[in-house]
Amino acid sequence: MSFAVPPTRTAAVVRQLRNEIVTGELPPGTLIKDGELAARLGVSITPVREAIAQLSVEGLIDIAPNRTRHVTRVTQKNALELIDVMGVLAGAGFEWGVDNLTETHLDLLRRRQREFVEALREGNVLAAGAAGADFSTIVILASGNRELQSMVDLVVARTTRILAMTAESDLWNTWITGHEAIIRLLEAGDNRGAVQRYRQIYVDFRARVEAFLFD
Known about the structure:
It contains 9 helices and 3 strands. A hairpin with a 5-residue loop joins strand 2 (61-63) and strand 3 (69-71). It has a 3-stranded antiparallel β-sheet with strand order 1-3-2. By secondary structure, the protein is mostly helical. It holds the Pfam family GntR. Keywords: DNA-binding, Transcription, Transcription regulation.
């Protein structure tokens, strides 16, 4: 019988704060106070401080020289730069992993795509983001380069936070149609075409984000 091992208090606080930041419950510029967070979450100061340090590494919380902490503010420059970096890293991982995919991997890709679309239909942005990210992760991990996946995870978290898309956002369509096209190409044995289509997702996504957020 399998069961989920409860996370550490620090991991639980990281997860809670990350979700609040990504969903916009903690808006950009929000002042982060250790004592208030600890009281609200029912934990001691130590896991709160450790969680803040982790989220600072992820780029979700800014720590000023005077040690005050705020939820990272959004600018056009850092939004587009993050998408560029994510495209380079994930694109490399996808290219390295695509030739190692098996039918089992393809089944997982199809399943994640169904979960992605269904989560959006239900309005569950966090679940949709996780399923969408897992679609890429399946291929990147097939490359055997786990260090690259760790780097992609950090950039994805920061990019998701910056966009804070609702379930109704038209931006999701870039990923939905891109994933479906990739699956068709992989099923046809066109791995090079799948890599090109994957890279095109980031080109299209960047253009739509630029117009959507900063027009």
